[in-house]
Every structure is written in structure tokens, then in C-alpha cells.
Amino acid sequence: MIRVYLKEVHSFFDSLIAYLVIAVFLTGIGLLTWVFPDTSVLNYGYADMATLFSLGPFVLMFLIPAVTMKTFSEEKKNGTIELLFTKPISDWQIILGKYFSVVTVMVIAIIPTLLYYWSVYQLGNPVGNIDTSGVIGSYIGLIGLGSVFCAVGIVSSSITKNQIVAFVLAVFACFILFSGLNSVAQMEGLASYAHIIGQLGIYAHYESMSRGLIDSRDVVYFASVIAMMLLFTKTILGSRKW
């Protein structure tokens, strides 16, 4: 698994993909957090990082599929996937190696936003007037959400050899998981099932973590969805119908 992981990480950073994704993420979040008047922290009147954690998922919803779309699709298109699976490593080692490589890129993209926390911390009146526990919980939730998006992207890439199709499938699935199920739960005719439907989506668990409370149920939810997506990938690739 380590060999696959290192190979994938090197391939990301040997090309422009990782750098472009990180640059777009940081530029987009930076503009939303500090520049655009409707979302700028400077216009709030209080120290808060709500912009990053409320809009960050929607930015990741597009950028992560852009990274994951090539993981298996490119192998299928180039005909190298057969060679990959003939090596003396298991399917799980290949899948996990590729999965953790895209998670690494995602985490590297998020780490520089800690500078935003430091800036808001310093801008507080008095200095440090910010809900640090909420910020920590939100960061854990954002990384958990991004990890789910990475797993969804891996599944999408395993389905097709067309990278554009893999990208579209991943974006759609991420949207349904994060926002779609939450919107369905708010429909009037489904009021009696609202809580159940809402708990199936990511939004409710992400919002819970954003309050600074790390509930084991939320952690189990993220881990379960990731495991399920990777199992789907294993099933698809295990069919060997490329």
C-alpha cells in the first residue's frame, strides 16, 4: 500500500493537478473570507470563521472530484490497470493507497487556512476572542467531510474510464450526500421522517461537529460512509470488467 500511496502522491505533485487544486481552494476561500463584502469576516463585527466552514464544503465538492477523477479512470483508459492488478499486492492495498493519497492532497490544501484562524484570533477584541473549540471541531468535521468526498470520488473513478464522467458523477454524489438529503428532509410531506433522512446525509453530522462537540456517532458516521464507498470500489474493481 505504501508503494502505491507514494507513487500516487508523487504523480499528483509531479503534475499541476495538486498545485492547481490547492491554489484554487486557497484563493477561493481567501476571497470569500476576506474580500467579498457579503461574506468577509471584516464586515461581521465579530471574530468568526463561519465563512470558511459554511462555504468550504461547496468548494471541496468540486475540487476533490477534480483530483480523484484520474485515480482509476486514467488507469483504465491507458490500459495500465491490468498491469497494476497483476502486481503482488492486494486490491485493498491498491484502493487504500490511492485513497490516502488524495486525502493527503486534501489535507495539505486545508492546512494553510490555519493562517486564517490566527488572523481572526489576532483581530478579536480582546485578542483571542474566538470560539477555539468550535474551530477545532469544524476543522475535524471539514477533514472528515473531505475524506468522504475523496471516497466518493474513488468510487466514481472506478466506474468509468472517462475522467469527465467520473468528475460529474462524483460532484453529483457529493452534493446529494451533503446538501441533497438535508433538503429532502425539509420537505413538508416528509416531516415525520425528517430526522432519519437528515441523519443519512453529511450536513447534520458536519454541523454537529462545527459546534465543537465531537460526538462518537458523527465519527462513526463518517467512518462508515468511507468504508462503504471503498467497499463499493472493491466490488466494482473485483469484477475485472474493464
Question: Describe it for me?
Answer:
- The chain is mainly alpha-helical.
- The chain has one domain (2-238).
- Helices cover 75% and strands 0% of the residues.
- The protein contains 12 helices and no strands.
- Helix 3 (50-68) packs antiparallel against helix 6 (91-110) and helix 8 (132-159) packs across helix 9.
- The mean pLDDT is 86.
Short description:
The chain contains twelve helices and no strands. With 242 residues, the chain is an all-alpha fold.
H/E element sequence: HHHHHHHHHHHH
Described by the principal axes of the CA atoms, the overall outline is: globular
Which runs of at least 5 residues are low in confidence (pLDDT < 50)?
none
Q: Supply Rg.
A: 19 Å
State the share of residues found in helices, binned by percent: over 70%
Number of domains: 1
- Biggest sheet descriptor: none
What portion of the residues fall into strands of 2 or more residues?
A: under 5%
Mean pLDDT figure: 86
Structural class: mainly alpha
Q: In whole angstroms, how far apart are the ends?
A: 22 Å
Instruction: Output the number of helix runs.
Output: 12
> How many strand elements?
0
